[in-house]
DNA sequence: TCAATCCGTATC
DNA sequence: ATACGGATTGAC
């Protein structure tokens, strides 16, 4: 038996991010298997660790400490996940220990002791290409997955599509080929949907669903079932990107533009990037899907790594709803209902028609706080434009800007409240509740339901109703929505974020895809400026065109994914120290520093707000990405090694390809 | 002469 | 991080 155990110790220090060798005492020889959890003495302290490997001898010149304890002989860390975790740590300039904390859930001893549940019934294999037939190259992709080839695709789902069914069919194809599959979706509601589709496609007991809200025991039970090979298919939210599926043959990420796919814990890995890396490392198939297409997805196509999986234009056209843009609002004044609902009259008319046909209407409202509208400071009535009754807002430009109409653009100088004659304005946030009330008043006899942050609906019946919701919380409607109204589109587009247009379009496509086809009467009305590329892409239902544009724009601006970027955030001293210690690649370009606010946007800045932190951006060509990460990792290591020498005033953190920049 | 303290260094 | 050792400083 090999007497040496190579151990990854759980210490938070970048310069200790490497394996350490320990002697395996005779009594632990059988238990200290690769992948198991151990306790070891590390510089005198007891710390947790994982056995990465057993070896005949150590390279280490000094004497080895013995393993203190084998926590459990369960080999929780597979070789594949260990290798992936190392690669992810390297990619994000982070430590293996940080990634392992995300990848391996805390142990539940009682769960490990439970008897092994026998695997589910082997496939009855009702394999069919099903709706994949509609995609160019769809059946071929499916065949490739079954045959165990490393087929990779960026998939643009046909509007109205039950995407879960395609995902389930692909997973079934993978399992039929004798390999495992992993599906990662943004939220628990999507997990439930895919879970149901997998149940239908695979039969009982062949897959598990992993979500954060399961509770530790349940979660660990299912996770262990995956690790032990009891099941070979997993659907879950972002933490399951590291799920230890054995003989992995397929990874799937749905709606990769959703921010929920970005892990908020160090080293801040992104589901799409991790799954792409994972598939690449082991030659597994990969499917990156959504109704929209991200610039990152487009980059996977542009590099040739993945192939596009989309339906022919005529299929898309006949499946898509008819999209109209509501901007000009001359008609508004003549329509009291429109006025009451704060909606342009084309939107009201479209909703009326759908409701008259006993179809549900979806109303998408940007999240609370996204829409800076103004109200009377005294009586709180919302402030309206005197000519068109559109909502007044402040243009980006601070509180001193003159309020203007969001619809007709007219400046509201000398505004007075029509109710109480006050001349004082205040900013208010309009959320789903308030919007639902206002719209309800415009349609007195129609039931109104809401779906948002508190209380998300999964589905609504196919009857006349108004469904008001925030992006991402749209219920599916039986038979599809007769109309979808996309409110305040300008607000989504105007956000000072580089990804605003892509994100807005993603939200619109996701909602509009729930409408009936145009031939079946499905209509979409978006309140935004016609001719803006994102709006144009929705009208023409062309996600690929938008993504191509987006990627070209990013290339021009030199932003990810066209380049690789790192943000260094911390105290000015910390950032300077980190930069000074980093041997950056020649292509590196420095941007900044800029002051950053660390507190989240809330009810105003705290009294005496001080300049807390600053941020520098470093960008390099994509080819220099690994070198950039390595340089920053080395600098962090040196920084950490000095540690106490430099004061705590010199702190700084590194993030690669951060989601929010701009 | 001894001890309290401060750096600097190593962590299998 | 945290623990240890060797040098440094201060007080008896």
How many β-strand stretches?
28
Task: State the low-pLDDT regions, or none.
Answer: 599-610
In the CATH hierarchy, the architecture of the largest domain is 3-Layer(aba) Sandwich
Write down the CATH topology of the largest domain. Rossmann fold
The CATH homologous superfamily of the largest domain corresponds to P-loop containing nucleotide triphosphate hydrolases
Spatial shape: globular
Q: What is the helix tally?
A: 19
Distance between the termini: 56 Å
> What is the top-level CATH class of the largest domain?
Alpha Beta
> How many domains would you count in the coordinates?
4
Q: Tell me the radius of gyration.
A: 27 Å
Structural class designation:
alpha/beta
**What is the mean predicted local confidence, pLDDT?**
89
Major sheet: order of its strands?
8-9-7-10-11-6-12
State the helicity in percent bands: 25-40%
* Biggest sheet overview: 7 strands, parallel
Range of strand content? 15-25%
